[in-house]
């Protein structure tokens, strides 16, 4: 019996270690997905992902490079449809000049969706009220969702449904 329990514990430990390696590889490959663009990040573990799950039950998913390319193609369609006429020269290249957060989730209908949250500058945030520091720091946009109200043309977001090849909820400011 002692031999059985010992082997069972060894198997469980191996399983847990392998699962941790798999999760690290998935996270690493998702970071590599955006590594060629310093102004883009894939948010999979942010406060916004958690909010989507607790509020709507939307689950996150890990898009591939092909999924991101499809999202950019749909975004190009929005540009052709004059949805981005608030820019002087709307083009996908101009949009890539913005800092962009890609938030992938599965909606209530089971469809793959990517929300793109974009902003032209990194704001500084004050220290926490409990902190002794008085130094303001740049926002942690690579890990936390940036939400700005009334920021003008510098801030925009759009939702892209990959399963329906559509875009909607373009919000400026």
Tell me the major beta sheet.
6 strands, mixed
Q: What's the tally of helices?
A: 4
Total beta-strand segments:
8
Helix content: 25-40%
Which spans have pLDDT < 50 for at least 5 consecutive residues? 2-30
β-strand amount: 15-25%
Mean pLDDT across the residues is 79
Helices and strands, in order, run as HEHEHHEEEEEE
- The gross shape turns out to be globular
Computed CA radius of gyration, to the nearest angstrom:
20 Å
Distance between the termini: 66 Å
Provide the structure class: alpha+beta
Walk me through this protein's architecture.
This protein is α+β, with helices and mostly antiparallel strands. A hairpin with a 5-residue loop joins β3 and β4. It is globular.
Draw up the topology in text.
Blueprint lengths: L1 H32 L6 E3 L4 H10 L2 E2 L4 H16 L11 H4 L3 E8 L5 E8 L4 E2 L11 E2 L16 E7 L4 E7 L1
Short structural summary:
The protein is α+β, with helices and mostly antiparallel strands. The chain has helices at residues 2-33, 47-56, 65-80, 92-95, and strands at 40-42, 59-60, 99-106, 112-119, 124-125, 137-138, 155-161, 166-172. The longest helix has 32 residues, at 2-33.
């Amino acid at each position: 019996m002692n031999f059985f329990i010992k082997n069972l514990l060894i198997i469980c430990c191996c399983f847990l270690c392998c699962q941790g390696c798999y999760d690290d590889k998935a996270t690493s490959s998702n970071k590599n997905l955006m590594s060629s663009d310093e102004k883009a990040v894939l948010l999979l573990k942010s406060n916004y992902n958690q909010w989507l799950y607790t509020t709507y039950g939307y689950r996150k998913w890990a898009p591939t490079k092909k999924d991101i390319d499809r999202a950019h193609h749909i975004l190009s369609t929005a540009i052709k449809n004059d949805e981005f006429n608030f820019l002087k020269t709307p083009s996908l290249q101009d949009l890539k000049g913005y800092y962009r957060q890609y938030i992938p989730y599965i909606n209530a209908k089971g469809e793959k969706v990517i929300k793109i949250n974009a902003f032209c500058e990194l704001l500084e945030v004050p220290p926490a009220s409990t902190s002794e520091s008085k130094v303001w720091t740049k926002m942690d946009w690579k890990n936390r969702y940036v939400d700005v109200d009334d920021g003008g043309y510098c801030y925009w977001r759009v939702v892209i449904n990959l399963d329906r090849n559509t875009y909607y909820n373009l919000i400026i400011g």
